[in-house]
Fold these 4 entries.
Entry 1:
Amino acid sequence: MEPSCVVMQDISSAWLQLHGLQDWVGLLDPLDPTLRVEILKYGRFSEATYDAYDPSCGSSCRYRCASLLKEVGLRDSGYEVTRYLYATMAELPRPPWPLSLLPKGSWLQRLLRLDSWSEDSNWMGFVAVSGDEETRRLGRREIVVAWRGTVEPSEWFKDAQLGMEPLKGGGVSGANVEQGFQSVYTSHGRFTTLSASEQVKTEIRRLVDTYGKEDSWKEGISLTLTGHSLGGALALLSAHDAAASIPGLSHVSVISFGAPQVGDAAFMEELSKKGVKVLRVVVKGDEVPKLPGIIDSLYEHAGVKLDLDMDEEDLMGQLDVAACHSLKTYLRLVESTKS
């Protein structure tokens, strides 16, 4: 990754618009150049979760909290990582058909690999907070939660158990979400005495308490969650969780990349009631955002979609599912989208 030297314009007067106050009306087609810069910022936080992940040991990160952003080329991002997040993998179902029946080397065979997760815990991302200079630029203190997506194209799919269950927490009645995603978010394991849900909420509360006492910013403390693929699903679940249970947040938004569907219409309504704003960045031709809805029509997407077009030239002749779903493809297309 190229080092990021971020010296950007003051956006304090436009921040709420850029984070969906009016659902991004007038900002997406064509893509507003200031919004493009902000989308890329969160996309690079998502990318950092891949760059920092240690593939030889799913429960660890390559770097210490204090040096992570520096090591992945985001030294000048204006944020400080304050906590790492881990998730537990529950027992996962195997597909009802032999993998040997699929064409060897096909994208679906790669998608259904069952050997890529640790059974106990996986390093899944981090919580960060804006420093004083970035806070002045934004006009508010911002907490960012970045969730890791799939190291293999299949990691989210094998946890998508293709069935809904009631949304946990917050006294919600009638809302249902994908049971596999919720399991990743709420399960405990041998090495994770706190679930991912408990970890992220504990840290957000700590930061709200700390900066709520120290800061004099009239716009308060905002929360932005980001992630790619499975990370986008976890971002949506944790956005609702935080908005429903943590007072003191002035605004909660999600900027996701290639995220699958997470819940039903009642869950989408819950997000709206809680004031959570969602911008989904989606590459046309990426199959992951269509799932699990192509199997179960009860699933719906939240928020507003930013479509990105990709042709054979963009793909350098590799027109396949993996290329369409790659976060690097997403970020390249955001960068090249015409204003």
Note: The chain has one domain: 14-336.
Entry 2:
Amino acid sequence: MGLMVLEAMLPLGIIAGMLCVAGNVQYYIHKAAHGRPKHIGNDMWDVAMERRDKKIVDQAFAPSPSN
């Protein structure tokens, strides 16, 4: 059992390292292209998700029509 754990650690370490690299690559590419880091919540996807979330919350708390 101990050998199986050791065999699994290398692939898991590689996967974890690649996830960390993938997250930081976006930051450095954007900083190199624009000279500053990306502002959080300032792209089309973030704005669309904020709008969707606001609509869902408004619908959830809207008064329901009574019969």
Note: The chain has one domain: 3-61.
Entry 3:
Amino acid sequence: MSSSAAAARRRVPLRGVVFDMDGTLTVPVIDFPAMYREVLGGEAAYAAAPSTSSTASRPGAPTSSAAPTRPSPGSSATASTASRSWASELCGFLDARQIRRGLITRNVKAAVDLFHQRFGMTFVPALSREFRPYKPDPAPLLHICSTWDIPPTEVIMVGDSLKDDIVCGKRAGAFTCLLDETGRYGPHESLPEDVKPDFMVSSLPEVLSVLEEHFDLAPVSVAESRI
């Protein structure tokens, strides 16, 4: 047996990947026109108040009682999202190998539905903040593993937050991968043990490399694929 084959045999099986949404699969982009349409009551009201947004945007300008000063938390109409480069490629990679993919976010269900509709990447299950308790509690990740009938030890949690995504994954007993594009968390070895992820990457393509290099990507069975 070759050394490479022996190494492949020693790899841990991985049968599911669970992603965070905001900051991991997407980049939030505030849609100010949509925000004003929502608050003012539709297209007609927005058109009748063309100066509202410009007034509210001037530093020190008085704020109208009808003009919002900030987006409504969790509102699907107040923010749009831009899919991260490589998100669809990574999903295609997993699908080709029949590796399950799920999603856990602290955003609202309406935002998840919009994400699925806009980018055509459906994650099952996709748990939003309406699922309680939400991360960093391990409950949502354990729920996904139970739904898949896959142990957490064969699942990896991928996200951009140490305190939410990584802690959730570690508490559930899953592998963890931190996406840190800007280096804000510092070197991997400097992180406290209670929040230190198993892997740390600076881009989504690196996630794919981690999966290929460190895991035996075991496809789910035909029966499991119907869950």
Note: The mean pLDDT is 79.
Entry 4:
Amino acid sequence: MVNILWSTSIVILCVEVVVGNLGNGFIALVNYMDWVKKRKMSSIDQILTALALSRLGLLWIVLVNVTSSPPSLLEAIKKIGVVMRVVCITWIVMDHFNVWLASSLSIFYFLKIARFSNSVFLYLKWRVKKVVVVTLLASLVFLFPRIILMNTYIDAWIEESKRNTSHTSSLRIFAQLSRLVVMLTLIFLSVPFFVSLTALLLLIFSLWKHHKKMQHNAQGSRDASIMEHIKAVKTVIAFLLLYTILFLSVALQLSSFDILEKFPIMFMFHAAGMVFPSVHSCVLILGNSKLRQASLSVLQWVRYRCKDGRPSCL
């Protein structure tokens, strides 16, 4: 049973890494090529590119992290605490920008598309780029404590591991450290989640108000503004659904630290959580007209190569 869990988790993680690298790499490449061509990049493309790059880093660092975490390697990790520290802190930084850039994207959609006459909203709408920048800077308030606490826990674990030479003792210390890290991750993940949820609810309210206004004015219910609202709402809903999977996977990991034999279950939950940075890239491609058109062009090119019988076709 344990071997089945390990094998299943590794397969899931490998698929997510492949999908995530293709999707996020595609987003970064298309936006980079567009920037080279036009010598400028829109605000939305800047957010998408930064998000794609952070997720590429996250997927690879998570792959390194989880493959070096099985109990059989704990003793080796104990002897290379510097490497462990670099891996864990890099993971925290990438994970932080992964969720906060995605949440900033929800804020961007809300301010750009929603329609309210409130003076505060209009002030923020005209300065949407600054709002996103300020949001990311403010999020650093959550990043630095995570890094400091992670350093503290790693120091404590290495010190205790040196005092206790038994394998079981090292595992127990590792479980205690991991529980604290996961609890902190869960707390920090809740903030951008509620930020995005608020943006979604306000977008839906704006859509409802605009739809009622169109009906009252006897205008078509499918004008460009309503279509933009619906598109943005769908994108943010997809983001929150995937974010919920990530949130639940982290929450379920807390139940995997009581018994050491549950480590493979925790690994499976961890692998399931990586569906967020990998699959969400596909949602972003489908929801962006430029990226969607570019992906269709690539598919048409691949289809042509296949029909033409070129050896480059897989």
Note: Confidence is low (pLDDT under 50) at residues 70-74.
